[in-house]
From TrEMBL, chain A:
GO molecular function per UniProt: hydrolase activity
Protein name, per record: PaaI family thioesterase
Positions of the Thioesterase domain: 54-128
Keyword Ribosomal protein in annotation: no
UniProtKB/TrEMBL annotation, chain B:
Superkingdom field: Bacteria
Enzyme class: hydrolase
Lineage of producing organism: Bacteria, Pseudomonadati, Pseudomonadota, Alphaproteobacteria, Sphingomonadales
UniProt key word Metal-binding: no
Domain called Thioesterase: residue spans: 40-119
Pfam families listed in its UniProt record: 4HBT (PF03061)
NCBIfam families: unchar_dom_1
Residues spanning the signal sequence: none
Species this chain originates from: Sphingomonas natans
Name of protein: PaaI family thioesterase
Length: 150, 139
């Protein structure tokens, strides 16, 4: 019998003991499905772009959407395997409300052998009133699956 | 370059203005562990953040009056092309204002590391510019 690798769990890449950009931003894992992942970014004064209004900068939203997109691709592939972001387009539909946690959910809607296509939506409390939409493509590495670093 | 004000998110990323080239500020983002995505590579979001800040700085630099209300921008959209993996080293970016009108600023911006002729990422960004005599809520 062949041992199947355990299914990819995006929560394992965040949280206690982890490091890197997403952890530095203070983002949290929220939920995932077979082809999607949702992350949350609690409001943080360090990440604002406007001292007068306290509005969150757009860059941190790109960051959580890029990470959620990468996790969606790993989920759809069923394994943690390397990929590289080819491009991301973000439409900023409205500013996030100061003080609100931003949620970002991305779905991998198409995988070819070499490329993954992702779409996503960010909101700050009401999924029907989004703050941003994203679309991106990712180059897939077809080398061996990676193990989650300890 | 004193008129280019960088805000808290720029400090968070470790970004500062180091020089000027052709009227556009050149920004540098010091490497830190908090910029890492995949092991040994910069996170795509951190690179996008640097590009966006360089784009805004490029538009800001085209406005003459220090208290010009047009110095308020709202991003409309950005398209980032990732060209090479970002290494864990200092990264630079400079935007070139394609057009700054009364309502819209359009910028092309590139980020590079060792060699400005080998960008690691490039972006096109469009921003709404606040109109003179307009409140900050209105876009």
């Amino acid at each position: 019998m062949i041992d199947a690798p355990p299914p990819f769990n995006p929560a394992s890449l965040l949280g206690r003991g982890r490091s890197g950009h997403i952890v530095a931003l203070g983002a949290d894992y929220v939920a995932h499905g077979e082809d999607w992942c949702e992350l949350a970014l609690p409001y943080d004064r360090r990440l604002i772009s406007d001292l007068a209004t306290g509005v969150l900068a757009s860059g941190p939203i790109v960051s959580i959407m890029d990470s959620a997109a990468g996790m969606a691709i790993c989920l759809k592939r069923g394994k943690l395997q390397a990929h590289a972001t080819l491009d991301l387009r973000i439409d900023y539909l409205r500013p996030a409300r100061p003080g609100q946690t931003v949620h970002g959910r991305c779905r991998c809607y198409r995988l070819t052998r070499r490329v993954g296509f992702v779409e996503g939506v960010a909101h700050d409390g009401d999924p029907d009133d989004p703050i941003a939409r994203v679309a991106g493509s990712f180059l897939l590495d077809n080398g061996p699956a990676l193990s989650v670093p300890a | 370059m004193s008129k280019v004000q960088l805000l808290p998110y720029a400090d968070f990323l470790g970004i500062r203005v180091i020089s000027e080239d052709g009227g556009s500020p050149v920004l540098a983002m010091s490497y830190s562990e908090g910029l890492i995505g995949a092991p040994g590579r910069l996170h795509g979001g951190a690179v996008a953040g640097l590009l966006e800040i360089a784009a805004i700085a490029a538009i800001d630099a085209t406005l003459e009056e220090p208290d010009d209300p047009r110095q308020r921008f709202k991003p409309i959209n950005v398209t980032v092309d990732y060209i090479r993996a970002g290494k864990p080293v200092e990264t630079y970016a400079r935007g070139v204002a394609v057009r700054v009108g009364t309502r819209i600023g359009s910028v092309h911006v590139e980020a590079w590391q060792d060699d400005p002729t080998k960008p690691i990422a490039a972006a096109r960004m469009k921003l709404l510019i606040a109109q003179k005599g307009e409140g900050r809520e209105e876009a």
